[in-house]
Prior knowledge:
Elements lengths: L22 H8 L11 H6 L4
Amino acid sequence: MSAFVFRSSRPHESILPRAHRDAHQRYLTYGPIVPMDSRPGLIERIFGRAA
C-alpha cells in the first residue's frame, strides 16, 4: 500500500456544476448568445431581456 496522497486545489467533479452538453438546453436556459460588444436597444433597456 502506498503512502502517497494526491492533493489538488480543484474541487472534486461531483460538486462542480456541470456544463451544458447540449447547445439547445443552454439556449433554453440562458437565451441566445449575445456578443459582448452589442448594445441593447431601447425596448431591451426598458423591459430587460425579452421573454
